[in-house]
Amino acid sequence: MKKITTLLMIALLVFSCNNDDDVLIPVCDTATNVSSNSITNNSATITWETSSTSATYTLEYGVSGFILGSGTTVSESDTAAELIGLEANTTYDVYIQTVCDPNNLSTQTDVYSFTTLPPNVATEFKPSLSEMNLFVGNLEDLQITPYAFKYNLSTTLFSDYAHKQRIIALPEDTSMEFDGDGLPIFPDNTVIAKTFYYNTDERDLSLGRQIIETRILIKISGVWETGDYKWNAAQTEAVLDIAGSTLPITWIDAEGTNNSITYKIPSNTDCFTCHHNNDDIQPIGPKLRSMNFDIDGVNQLEQFINNQQLTGVASSTSVRSLPNWEDTSLDIDERARAYMDINCAHCHIPGGSCADESTLNFAFETPLEETNIEDQTFLINYRINADVDGLRMPFIGTTILHTEGVDLIQEYIDTL
């Protein structure tokens, strides 16, 4: 009897296994090689691979860290999906599940993450600097958007010893166009920004800095417009301030000397005074000759040319270079004329704000005999040494004498 029972159980087991083989469902393979491309500030395309045929796919995505089941789902019949309506500068997680049959689903892929691009730079003045989208991350870090690039000048404008970060944001697929040694032709919707700050202690930069203002120029329908953003004490935001204001600033210089000034943030009227020529506002600093110099062994203009940020010129050798006034290996006349070009020529030049009051022409390329410098050395010496508002030169943008600049000009004048 036991033998018969055992044989029956074996027969049933064999019959049952044979029946399972008849209805065996192939495993639905999990997608592999998930990747992304065509990422913008509000969209991305996700692609993947699979060995399953005649399958569909369910994508679930959301801001990084979301819980499966709470995200946005998309069904696809192909191995690619375009995700739209995303937030700029945001990391998203994506999971993909293969659907071979309503009752036969693969396991979810491991999480795949991507980050959208930052928002486009604003081409109109917003109430706050953060809304201009010139910086990413914490505003106080001054980490510029990938849509902009830094530039520097061989000889810089004196602004009460403030440091400056200079950036240019060009519209997509545009460039600065060569137009001689001076200002290039900037396309409409170009944004130029200059941020002023003081290091707490020049001997120890880890002690931080105080950011004061960010001045912005925007070219709108062929016309440059100005705006100035004043930073708050917490260094978390800056607000548009066209009226101008003053605030006390203190810092320790490289020699360990304590300095204090009453810093003046210019009004829009002040900006117009310095930036206008023949009633048209224009940038002052980013002339090609002022940007044609080496930074860390690489010529700045060559970088712009190679990056297609500057077109219409094949080489930086086609552009004159404005000397660095601090380079003592150069002749005194080159250094002094370069200093006066960047600090004085925007007003003392034909069409400048002082053209009707003065015959001086401080543009570097102007021959000495046409500048009237030799005829007015006494007046020049008097004005650069004056330490009274209304007499001090430059009379906008500074509150203290630039000792090194005054010494340079006086030394130059003594040679005439």
Briefly summarize what is shown.
With 416 residues, the protein is α+β, with helices and mostly antiparallel strands. The protein is built from seven helices and 24 strands.
Write the layout of secondary structure elements.
Layout: H1 2-22, E1 32-37, E2 43-49, E3 56-63, E4 72-76, E5 80-84, E6 91-101, E7 104-105, E8 112-115, E9 135-136, E10 143-144, E11 148-150, E12 163-169, E13 176-177, E14 191-199, E15 209-220, E16 223-231, E17 238-240, E18 245-252, E19 258-265, H2 268-275, E20 276-277, E21 280-281, H3 288-291, E22 294-295, E23 298-299, H4 300-306, E24 310-311, H5 332-344, H6 377-385, H7 403-413
Parallel strand pairs: 13-24
Antiparallel strand pairs: 1-2, 2-5, 3-4, 3-6, 6-7, 6-8, 9-10, 11-12, 12-14, 14-15, 15-16, 16-17, 18-19, 20-21, 22-23
Helix pairs in contact: 5-7, 6-7
Describe this structure in words.
α6 runs antiparallel to α7. The protein has 416 residues and is of the alpha+beta class. The strands form 8 sheets. A 6-stranded antiparallel sheet has the order 11-12-14-15-16-17, with helices on one face. Strands 3, 4, 6, 7 and 8 form a 5-stranded antiparallel sheet that branches. A 3-stranded antiparallel sheet has the order 1-2-5, with no helix packed on it. It folds into 3 domains: 32-115, Sandwich (Immunoglobulin-like), CATH 2.60.40; 118-318, no CATH class; 323-416, no CATH class. It has helices spanning 2-22, 268-275, 288-291, 300-306, 332-344, 377-385, 403-413; strands at 32-37, 43-49, 56-63, 72-76, 80-84, 91-101, 104-105, 112-115, 135-136, 143-144, 148-150, 163-169, 176-177, 191-199, 209-220, 223-231, 238-240, 245-252, 258-265, 276-277, 280-281, 294-295, 298-299, 310-311. 18% of the residues lie in helices and 30% in strands. It starts with a helix and ends with a helix. The protein contains 7 helices and 24 strands. β9 (135-136) and β10 (143-144) form a beta hairpin. Residues 1-21 have low confidence and may be disordered.
